[in-house]
Amino acid sequence: MPAVNGPATDADLDTLLADIDAARSQGLAAIAAALSTDELAQVESGLFGRKSALGPIKQALGSLAPDQRAGVGRALNEAQQELRTAHAQASDELAAVARREQLQREWLDLTETPPGPERGHLHLVTQTTERLEDVFVGMGFTVSEGPQAETDWYNFEALNLPAAHPARSMWDTLYLDLGERTELGDGEGGEASNVLLRTHTSPVQIRVMEVQPPPIYTICPGRVFRRDTADASHMPVFHQLEGLVVDRGISFADLAGTLEEFTSAYFGRSISSRLRPSYFPFTEPSAEFDITCVICEGAGCQTCQRTGWIELGGCGMVHPNVLTNCGIDFEEWTGFAFGFGIDRLALMRHGIDDLRDMYSNDIRFLSQF
Ligand code: PHE
Predict the structure, then answer these.
(1) How many other β-carbons are positioned within 10 Å of the β-carbon of residue 31?
(2) Which of 140, 312, 320, 342 would be a feasible disulfide site paired with 239, CB 3.0-4.6 Å?
(3) Residue 13 near residue 69 (C-beta atoms within 8 A)
(4) Whose CA is closest to atom 10 on ligand 1?
(5) CA of 286, closest atom in ligand 1
(6) C-alpha of residue 315 to centroid of ligand 1, in Å
(7) How far apart are CA 202 and CA 226, in angstroms?
(8) pLDDT at 225 (0 to 100)
(9) What DSSP letter does each residue of 8-34 carry, written as one string?
(10) pTM for the complete prediction?
């Protein structure tokens, strides 16, 4: 740095301008070399202020003649401005990098993923229904379905249960208030004012017999409803599978044989079935059917109250009045019907002790099946 005192020579001015240029390029290089905000802060004092490379030149400015000062001053200002801009830009960029790095470091993965690829599956009741359908289809049955909201005719009357029949108390029924709607049940099907949630799937059998001439071999699985309070063995909504056979020369022995066949196909050969006399308005004679207790396999335990048997459902020979109601000649055709709860069956097979577990939607329960 030449000691300028008084009017400077041209050579002095050239040196000053060259010094400004050198300080500018050195400063820009130092800014570019800073890789962090800390490093940038360290080079900062060398860029601006008295101790910077441009500091002494600024001081020398005072001793220049006014016309010489203008040219050097302009070069000085430009160099300073350039350094400030480059510094501000580098500072922004490095701060952004630092922020990104910090976020990366502090990032926490809060998404919860179950270990391993887990797939859902059908509900136990659906699985059981499908298995039972397979068993019966294998025996030559078809599968029939019908509406869950039924008229009094299909649910009771056609099944030999006229209004005020005392046996209606066997089913705690939920009636529907349809208000103005009359489209359901108009015609031969009954009164729209008497619409209810079906208490069994027997009405599907009536619907089948109405439209299909015998021989009939069909099962009717589906959801049914009763005005029951939920407890370990009751639900207001549950599932039934009923079967119907109408053909020439069908006897009680065919019924017993079909039930025995289905029981061992579903539960295995160690489980068999038996019939006990009972009463249903739509069958005559009627029976209840039991299966060997699946817990003790017939030895007698708490579940079967030491009898070795568990009650599964009802059955019997289709009542002549029911056949007549469906336009089938009972002199020519005879038939049998049976029905049981699908949910209860699944309960027994898997040793579940509370029916409510089936519907609590607890994944720990459901994933076991
Ligand atoms: N429908 C009867 C019920 O729900 C079961 C049953 C079906 C009984 C067929 C006999 C014949 O209780």
Answers:
(1) 21
(2) 342
(3) no
(4) 315
(5) 10
(6) 6
(7) 14
(8) 96
(9) PPHHHHHHHHHHHHHHHHHHHHHHHH-
(10) 0.66
